[in-house]
Every structure is written in C-alpha cells, then in structure tokens.
Amino acid sequence: MATPRAPPLPAVGGGVAGGGPPGRVTMRMFHGDVFLGEAEVFPMKQGGEGSLPFPSNEIRISHLSPSSERCPPLAILQTIAPFSVRCKLQAKLMPPHPSLHRLYLTCFNEYKSAVVVVGDEELHLVAMPSKVEKVPCFWCCSVRSGIYAASVGMLNLRCLAIVFDLDETLIVANTMKSFEDRIETLSRRMDSEDDPVRVSGMSAEIKRYIEDRELLKEFIDTDTVTDNGRIVGTQKEEVLPISGGQEHVLRPVIRLPERNAILTRINPEIRDTSVFVKLRPAWEDLRSYLTAKGRKRFEVYVCTMAERDYALEMWRLLDPEGNLISLHNLAERVVCVKSGSKKSLQNVFKDKGCHPKMAMVIDDRLQVWDEKDQPRVHVVPAYTPYYAPQAEMANAVPVLCVARNVACNVRGGFFREFDENLLRKVFELMYENELLDLPYAPDVGDYLVCEDTSFPPNNRDIAPISEGMSGAEVERRLNGLAYPRDQKQMPSFTRSSDDERMTIRGTPGGTNIQSNGGSLVTTPSLFVTVLQEIGRLCESRVLFSNEKIAIGIGKTRDEAQVQAAEKALQNLESNYLSFMAPVAGVLNKDVNKPPGSGNGFLEDITLSDDISMEEPSGIFRDQVRDPGSALNGEYHFQAELGGQILGRGIGSNREFAKLQAAEEALKTLKTTTDPQIKKHLRPVRIIISTGSRSSQTTKVFDVSVK
C-alpha cells in the first residue's frame, strides 16, 4: 500500500487558484444533512454558474467512495473517464469548517473521493494538494454511476476483463438435426465436385461427422456411448439455479476428454435437446492462466448470439467448478445478443462491472462487434474440427495458448503504462494544475492488433459449411426447425522460413513492426527500447507512407527483432533529420552515430525540439519572385504555417537564410498562444507491433505538442 501523503498547506487562501478560470460561484456544502461550510467553485470551462454540475447551487455529498490500496482516486478517474474534471473548489473560510477539514484529510490519506450523485452520474470530489492554498481543495470529476466502485477493485488487483465468444471460438456444438443437414450438404457438394483431392477431403469430413453423429444417437437412445469399444455411461451433473434463472436440475452428461468432447442434454426431459460438443484444444491452459495460483488476472464475461439456456450450459461445461464466473455473477456475465445484432462492450457491462477501456475480447469474428470496440478484439481462427481436425495443433503454439499469451501481454502492457506513466504523473499534480496536465491513460486497445479475417488459415480454402450451430440456429435446432446457414470467414496464417524474419513498416499513422514468427517477443534490447522511446517522444506522423523501413533476419526471433530495430533506427534518424532540418534548424548532424550514444538520436532529437506540421511542403517561401536569385546579394525567406508568417530570414546564401527563418519560426511555435497556429499542431501516434497474425501484440504511444 502506498504511503499516505501529507498535503502541503503552506500559504494563505483566497483568490482564484493557479490563475484558474473566472466565474467563481459560492455554494454551501453538505455531507448528507450535515453542513460542512461554504466553498468557492471555479468551472473548468467558460460559462460560469451555468456550466457547473451541481443542482440547486449546493454540493450535497451522499457517500465516500471505496478506499483504494494503491491508486489515488484521480488515477482511477483518469483511466475510466479521461479529462472529466468539471470544476475546482476550495473552502471559502479560513480556517475551514472542522467537518470539511476532516473530510478532506480522510479523502486525501485513505485514497477516497467524496461522491455527489446527480441522476445517472457521479461527481467525485478528489482531495488535491496545493502549492498556494491553506484551505481544503478539490477537483470535481464526473463519471457514469457505479463504474468507479467496480474499477477500484480491478485496478488495485491489477485485473482486467476478458470477454469470450462461444461458438466456433471455444466450442463447436451439434444436434442430430444439424449433423444430418451438414452431412447432406457435403454429400451434395461432393457429387458435383470433379477435383479428386477435394472429393477425398469431403469424404473424410463426412466420415468425421457420421462418427460423432452415431455417438450422439447412442447417447439419445441409451444414455451411453461406445468409445473405442468401451461403454461409457452418463453422469448426473447438478446444475444449480442462478438468480432469477432456471430451477435446480440434474443433467445427464458424458465427458470424453480423449476426444475433447462432451455430450449433454439442454432439457433433461427432452432427449432431442441432446448436443454433441467439441471443446477447443488448450482451453485448460487458457483457463488455468486466468485463475493461476488463486489470483484473478481477469474478470471473465461471455457474449454470444446463442439462445440463453444453451449458452449457460455451454459455459457450465467449460467452467464446471465456477472458477471463472461464480454462480452469483453468472446471470449478469453471460450476455446473449439477438442474432444479427452487433455485440458491444457497453451491452456486456450494462451492470457497470467494468469500463470498456479495461476489457479485451476473444472472438473468431471481428465484424460482429461494434466498430468502437473492434480495437479491443483479439481475433482467433474459427474452430473447424471436422474440416481440418489437425489444424489446431499444426502451429507450434495452439490457438488458445496464443490467446493466453496475448492476454498476458495486454495485461502487462496496460499496467506498465498505468504504473510507470499515469500513477507517477498523477502523484505530481497539484490543485493549481490544469486539465491538459493530466497524463495519458492506457486502453486495452493500445496493446492489441485487429487482424485481417478475409483470408483462410494456412492458405487453404474456407470450410465449405459452418461446422456447428451458432446464433439463432441454436434455438431453431433445439426446437427441431430448419435454419439457413452462412459460412464464416477466417483469419489468415502464413508459413515462415527457417530463419526468423522481422519487418518494420511505416504507416500513415506511424511506425509498425511486424514479424512472421509464432511467439511473442519478450526480451528487450537497446535498439528495441530506443525504438519504443522514439515512439514515446518523437513526432513522426509526417515521415512515413506505408513504406518498408527495415528488415532483420536471424536464427531467433530476438536476433531478428534487434537487427530490424537497429536498421530502423538508422533509417528513421536519417529520414527524420532530413525532414526536420529546414523546420527546426537541425542541420549537419552526424546521422551515422549509433543510437543511444551520448549524442545519439534520443538526446539530439527530443520532443521539445521537434514540431509536427500538417503540411511538410510550402513551409518556406522565397520573398523574391525568382526563387533562384538574391536581392542585393541577399536571400530572403519566410517560414509560414496555415497562411501565417512565423519567421523571416536574411542571409548571403539560401541555406543560411532558410535556417534563420526556421529558428525564428521554432521560437514562435514554442511560445505562441495563437489558437489559429496551435490548431495546425497535432498529436502523433506511433504503433509498434510484434508477432504473427495469430499472436500479434502492439504498443501504441500518443504524443501531443503543447
């Protein structure tokens, strides 16, 4: 637990702290019905009293937030509701009312906030230290009701949320009817197929369907199956009632671990609701990681387009002991979406159990998710145990083990950013700071790469039919109705050569590092670290246009990555300096110096020296009509941005005049408060991605120029 800070209260109160915005309003403060005194409130935006969030011109605190073990309230609020500071307030009287002073100290030392509830919104009063004021001072942040309390526990435990799809992501399930329809469809296709290789493949696929159909039929007729000459009987598994859910039932189940298969009956009284379920290999590895050593790394949710009773039973088969989702939470955490609708994290977390920024998704389809949630989706290839039964184990790392590695990397990256950047900077903030002084908050989407699912895995054809029930088909099948099937497209995989190969590309949005290997790169190196630091510090949006920057080849992934990073640094440094030279005056630098040296890239080119402009061309204009001539032996240049002159230069040669104009322009840009100029300075994003299509991870850095 972090050591409580003693708030500095050195000087005297009164006035608008830190040159805050005008429009102060005096309001009465209450904790419940207890009067705390009067406070002066300063809106963060222009508009005075009308822009303040408190109704009836009074501040009525309803309760204190849960105490946080290691995270100050402002860090939590910046994570779940970035830049949501609505106003500042401070006690009006000196000395302050004793009750208000006690409230301030409690909030400050115990990492609590004072909560004002306004409709479906919570206003959190965050106790802030002050450089100037001697009275209690607060920032007021707004957040959706209930989300703060849920986030406190997750951030304290370093826990995120993970949302699973079911059908063709974790399982493939079939009834007798769906088995028969799939066999019939394949038989018709085989009859019209001339390619003997395809005919052979379809024949083998039909055989696998028939084998599992016969096991299901035996289960329906006798409550037993004959597996490799061994008769296996049913076990009555108790299904406990969930809140507001089904009654207590005993369900007949046969588990065949050697086949990764389970037979179950959705309605124990109706044999035709029997289902044959294939579990995706390596599910146990992923499940064990999520709850390893009793420590919950992720809060688990399910979002599916299947019928609810079916979805609950499929999840019970996957998590029979309720270690991932407790019985108490099951009703809220298994979310069923109407077939054809978009899935969304907002719908998944309608109970306000988590903020979407702190959640990742495992699904075999990207497009079924709301567009704003797609950056948080890790796409896995659809599970096809009948069409390609060996595909799961063909890769060195099974699909769900890759998903486990991705989840581990996402969690590590998120909390590394949270601890090393957000927390550190929040502890430095004072009451007098402004909104823009708040640090960037991590988002799960920063550490995931949305994969292209338009190509089939391993360069093979897409499975001709969907292998199991999904969406509305589940309900129709269990009720004996026909349902038109549509096929899913699957993500692509490419084979890599014996040598590992790493490619670094520039994209319109920044820099992208990609490799063709199968496992995540975890070993840092000087060059990789420096490249990441460039992403954090440097403005580079205008440098690249989807061109290849560097390639590294080595016997190991780390060797290839280091080589690619080293070459990329040299190329980026050369390109960057050549572009920035006429703007920032960075001329005649030694571009051959090794990165990371005393006078290397990071120390010569820092954020404070580099300005990113909307248009790299047209910045300098020759002030004479003939740009190749001099005026009275002198060259005249002016630096322009957005039609405004930022600097002028005069010299005996062109380069000297241009350099002089650039230096004057740079000084202007650093000190300007003109909004017409500032609007041309934009934030930059650098993306660093590693891994193959099936195990890709990414790090995103957002940089702003002030």
From TrEMBL:
It catalyses: O-phospho-L-threonyl-[protein] + H2O = L-threonyl-[protein] + phosphate; O-phospho-L-seryl-[protein] + H2O = L-seryl-[protein] + phosphate. Residues 542-574, 624-671 form the DRBM domain. It is found in: Nucleus. Its EC number is 3.1.3.16. Pfam families: dsrm, NIF. One of its GO terms (cellular component) is nucleus. Residues 155-403 form the FCP1 homology domain. This is protein-serine/threonine phosphatase. It comes from Leersia perrieri.
